[in-house]
Amino acid sequence: MQINSEEAGSGGRYIGRIDGIDDPAIMTYSRASATLIIIDHTEVPATMRGQGAGQALAEFAVDAARKGGWKIIPLCPFMKAQMDRHPEWNDVRK
User: Fold this and answer.
1) Could you give the count of Cα atoms lying within 13 Å of 65 in the half-sphere of its Cβ?
2) Which residues are CB-contacts of 60 (< 8 A; sequence separation ≥ 6)?
3) What are the residues whose beta carbons fall under 8 Å from the beta carbon of 49, sequence distance 6 or more?
4) Which of 21, 29, 36, 40 has its CA 20 to 30 A from that of 75?
5) Do residues 16 and 56 touch, judged by C-beta distance below 8 A?
6) Is the pTM of this model over 0.90?
7) 1: closest CA among 15, 20, 14, 17?
8) Integer Cα distance of 64 and 68 in angstroms
9) Can you tell me whether residue 94 is helix, strand or coil?
10) pLDDT per residue over 42-78, tens digit each?
11) Alpha-carbon gap, residue 52 to 73, rounded angstroms
C-alpha cells in the first residue's frame, strides 16, 4: 500500500491507496501543537477491508511521529485500540 501525507492549516490526513482500488483508506488528525497531534478518525472502504489498510495507516502515523518528534493522542477508537495492542508504540502516545 502506498501512503501519502497531506497537511493544511491545523490538521492533515494520511491517505493509503492500493493499486486497482479507487477509494483510499484515510486517517485524519488535528495538530494541537508542534509536538502533538490528535488522531480523530480512520476510515477504510469496504473494498480494502481485510487487507491491513488500517494497520498500515496506524504504523505510518507512529513512524511519522517518531521521525517528527511529536506525540499522538489517539481520540479515534481504531487508533486507540491499535495503540493499546502495541505497547511498543507508547513512546509516541500522549
Assistant:
1) 25
2) 3, 5, 14, 16, 27
3) none
4) 21
5) yes
6) yes
7) 17
8) 6
9) coil
10) 999 999 999 999 999 999 999 999 999 999 999 999 9
11) 22
Query: What's the CA gap between 44 and 8, in Å, rounded?
Result: 22
Handedness of CA 5, 78, 46, 43 (dihedral sign): negative
Q: CA distances (Å), 34 to each of 11, 46, 89, 91, in order?
A: 11, 34, 19, 17
Can you tell me which residue has the cell 480512520?
Answer: 42
Number of residues that make up the chain: 94
Give the SS3 label for residue 69.
coil
Name the pairing type of β-strands 11-17 and 2-8: antiparallel
